Amino acid sequence: MPTKYSMPIAGAAALSAALSALAGGCTTPSGGSPAPGAPPESRGANGAGEATGRQGGKAAGEGGEEAPARADPAQPEAMMDRTRNHAMATAGFANTMAAFAAPRVIAKAKSLPSREEMLRCIDAYLEVVAETKRAPQGEGNRATLDAEPYALKLRALFAAWTPSTTVPPEIQRNARDVLAALGVPEPPAGWDRFEGHAAPSSP
Fold this sequence. Notes:
Blueprint: H1 12-20, E1 54-55, E2 58-59, H2 76-101, H3 103-107, H4 115-134, H5 142-146, H6 148-159, H7 169-181
Antiparallel strand pairs: 1-2
Helix pairs in contact: 1-2, 2-4, 2-7, 4-6, 6-7
């Protein structure tokens, strides 16, 4: 049976940086741009765990080399790649929604993604949902499926709005709902007073 999990959200500086970095796009299971901070090795496989056939930015097989065979998605390495890319897309989506859920966080954002960049981020997460639905029963997690209705609503809302620091109540409400569905707990003082988790102090 699919499981439900709890997801932490980033600190204030990281949330602001995530918004600023969205111009690069979120990780998509179809091989879109990796999320900020993605490990370099993840860039050589798509979200289904299939090799892209590129090594160091050059297509395998160029210069007389034979391109490697496509990875079997059922193999352990392919499954690990898929899980890693799903986690990156989901974390990027959750951290972005946390910024729009918290007025004090969004007000301090140094820059905001465009409408198109937000839609790419949401679409990356919706691809994770689609792959979870296609997975054999027992794989994936319940939270991914529970969050889908809110993600679809958010996509429709962002498609009709240019992101700004004045977030419409309906977007704010759905951002909070999708975070709750993903297992992100509401901050102790509530989203209205949340300013992002403090960065851990150095020893």
